Amino acid sequence: LNMDNKELKDFYSELEELLDMARNCLVTIFEIIGDKNKENYKILMMLRVIYIMLILLSLVACETLSDIELKTRTSDAVMTSFIYADSAVDINVYGSVSVLDSIKMSALGSGSVMLTTPNRTYKSYLLNGDKDVHLKSIDISEGDSVVLQVDCGEIGMKAKTYIPSKPQILSVDTVYNGVYGLLYFYVTILDSVSVSDYYQLVLRRNYRDNKGKMTSEVMTCNYYDYLFYQVTTGFSQKMNGLFSDETINGNSYTLKLSVSIDDVWANVAKDDSVAVEVDLYHHTEDYFKYAISLNAIDNYVLLPVFHSPVVYTNVEGGLGIVSGMSHNV
Fold first, then answer.
1. Which residues contact 183 (CB under 8 A, 6 or more apart)?
2. Over 80: is that where the pLDDT of 222 sits?
3. Does 262 score more than 50 pLDDT?
4. 4, 210, 288, 328: which one has the fewest Cβ atoms less than 10 Å from its Cβ?
5. How far is CA 6 from its chain centroid?
6. Dihedral (C-alpha) 57, 60, 65, 68: value to the nearest 10 degrees?
7. pLDDT digit string, tens, across residues 112-167
8. Could you tell me which of 212, 329, 205 has the C-alpha nearest to residue 275?
9. Helix (H, G, I), strand (E, B), or coil: what is residue 324?
């Protein structure tokens, strides 16, 4: 980058584009390093120093230094909520700023939260400093549409979703392979007809640990079926048990997955038992697109460096995801 035969205006414009591209690449790199772990997110603070160094290095070739006025990135409001039928609803609302400015999620301030179902409207309030709202005893049924709206001063967010029907599990069979130390699960599901459905199959173990505490946790699984692969960023990626019914619409289908027997019994109290349950979730298309976009970012290859993936959102006036879901065990 240099100023040969360029006006200052054109030079600064080109510099801004290069810095913005470099910033996006660095954010993606450190997102992967951080692996979505909150403690590791501290490493993102290094971006401030790197970003300043990029500016200084870019100006080394300039004959005359001048003030550079880059575009400021505005703060975004974020709203997330996952809504089940006939269940309490937790809503997370916060302000998010550029990772170059801060990694801390801030509260939006005082405001109102309104959730509307076909039966009635529920309202709550955000006090200064609040980021979470809990609505209990919500009357929502399968198939109901839901509208969630948040108003905080000049910030207004709105999202629409619905509650999918309860997914159907026809049977579950298990086979233990002692040679490889794997416990195989064969789960047969029945898909609904004439609609696009999005599911997620996970295994959860419930046990008492060595300290006597009851624990429930999702297990790391090996997914074998082609349905568990989705095309993201130009190539197939496993989606942690998430899949669509595009190729099995309206039919029954048996899915295959396995877990390590060592993982099944890890940290279980001596002479105690462990229960492994099969959880099948039914998601909305919005959630499916949201999950795919996150997966695309996690697996993004920096070739080419242009057009990096963007996180999907169904929130008007902000970012985040609001989605209904149901599940069967």
1. 174, 175, 176, 177, 258, 259, 260, 261, 264, 276
2. yes
3. yes
4. 4
5. 44
6. -30
7. 899 999 989 999 888 776 788 888 878 889 999 999 999 888 888 999 999 999 99
8. 205
9. strand
Mean pLDDT of 106-114: 79
DSSP letter string, 73-136: PPPEEEEEEEE-TTS-EEEEEEEE--TTT----B---SEEEEEE-SS-EEEEEEPTT--EEEE-
What size, in residues, is the chain? 329
233: left (phi over 0), alpha (psi -120 to 50) or beta: left
DSSP for 257-280, written as a single string? EEEEHHHHHTTBPTT--EEEEEEE
| Residue 222 identity (one-letter amino acid) | N
Angle at 290 between CA 284 and CA 292, to 5 degrees: 105
Q: What is the DSSP letter of 226?
A: G
150, amino acid identity: V
Q: What is the mean pLDDT of residues 293-309?
A: 61
Q: Which of 26-30, 54-58, 181-185 has the highest mean pLDDT?
A: 181-185
This prediction has a pTM of 0.72
Q: Chain-centre distance of CA 289, in angstroms?
A: 10
* Element of type H or E holding 48: helix 46-58
Looking up tokens 């529920």 gives 122
164 preceded by a cis bond (ω within 30 of 0): no
The residue with tokens 């971006």 is 47
Segment among 20-24, 39-43, 154-158, 177-181 with least mean pLDDT: 39-43
